[in-house]
Amino acid sequence: MRTVIFDLDGTLADTSGDLIASANACFTGLGLGEPLDPVADQLTAFQGGRAMLRLGFSRVRPEADESDVDAQFPLLLKHYEAAIDVHTVLYPGAVEAVEGLLSNGFKVGICTNKPEGLAETLMSRLGVRDLFGSLIGADTLPVRKPDPAPFVASVEQAGGRVDRSLLVGDTVTDRDTAKAAGVPSVLVTFGPEGQGISRLEPEALLHDYGQMCDVAERLLGR
C-alpha cells in the first residue's frame, strides 16, 4: 500500500509561534525578558526546545551552560503543553492534501521529533488527528529521526509498506531519515528554510500542498 508520512512542525503546521512563546516564558521566569523573536528565530524553533534555550541564553546570559538548558527544558515543555495551539496553524491546503491522498488510496501518517503526547494533543486540538493512520513521536521508540526506525514504524502503523512510501518534511533531519530508510523525500519550500531547502536535493520539492497528490503519484506510482 502506498504511504505518505508527514513531519509535523514546519511541514504540516507552523508551530513556531507557540514554541518560541514557551521558550520566552522560561526566560521571563528567570527575569531575563523575551530574547527570542517569533519571526526571526523560526528556524531555531523547529530545531527543538533545547536549541531555542541555547540561543536565548547566548543573548541574555552567555555564561550559561548545558546544565542551565537542562534545568529549563522541563519548564519549557510545561509552558508549551499549556498553550500548544494559541498561534499554531496548519499550512494552507494541508488538510485538503491529506484528504486527497486518502481518497486516492494512499495511507497517511506522521513521524515527528515532537514528544508523542504533545503531538497527539496538538493534532487533536487542531481537529485533524483522525485523518492520520499513525503518529510516531520523539519518545515513542528508543531512537528518533534521523534514525529510520520511527519512520518505518509510522509506515507500518498506518498499514503501508516501506518500499512504497515517502517522507514529507522540511529539514535536513527529514532528508537524512528518508535516505536512511531508502525512500524518497519531499521537502516543502514554505517551511522555515523556504527555497533554500533545495540545497538538500530531495527527490521532490513541494511549493504548495495543491501539488501533493501529483508528487506522490509521480514518486510512488499508481
Automatic annotation (TrEMBL):
Alphabetized SUPFAM superfamilies for the sequence: HAD-like
GO molecular function, one term: phosphoglycolate phosphatase activity
Reactions it catalyzes: 2-phosphoglycolate + H2O = glycolate + phosphate
EC number(s) recorded for this UniProt protein: 3.1.3.18
Transmembrane feature ranges: none
Pathway: Organic acid metabolism; glycolate biosynthesis; glycolate from 2-phosphoglycolate: step 1/1
A Pfam family assignment: HAD_2
Signal peptide segment: none
GO cellular component terms, A-Z: cytosol
GO biological process: DNA repair
Family assignment from sequence similarity: Belongs to the HAD-like hydrolase superfamily. CbbY/CbbZ/Gph/YieH family.
PANTHER family for this protein: PHOSPHOGLYCOLATE PHOSPHATASE (PTHR43434)
Protein name according to UniProt: phosphoglycolate phosphatase
Taxonomic lineage of the native organism: Bacteria, Pseudomonadati, Pseudomonadota, Alphaproteobacteria, Rhodobacterales
